[in-house]
Amino acid sequence: MKTFTAILQKEEDMYVATCPEIGTVSQGHTIEEAISNLKEATELYLEEFPVKEATKPILTTFEVAEFAKT
Description:
By secondary structure, this protein is of the alpha+beta class. The protein has a single domain (1-70), classed as Double Stranded RNA Binding Domain (2-Layer Sandwich), CATH 3.30.160.250. The chain has one helix at residues 31-48; strands at residues 7-11, 14-19, 24-28. It starts with 6 loop residues before the first strand and ends in a 22-residue tail after the last helix.
């Protein structure tokens, strides 16, 4: 069993889940559903395209300046 990362974003009435190590994406109406769908999509992908070792993403934050509209 391997552990992967899930990044979730709320888009309107759905959650979009992405696995950055593999590149799979899925969605669901709840966080749990989105992760479950992502797990299934990732398992199906790995059956077809096995990965020997996936690198872990580096997650950080950064700031950008806000410009007032004139």
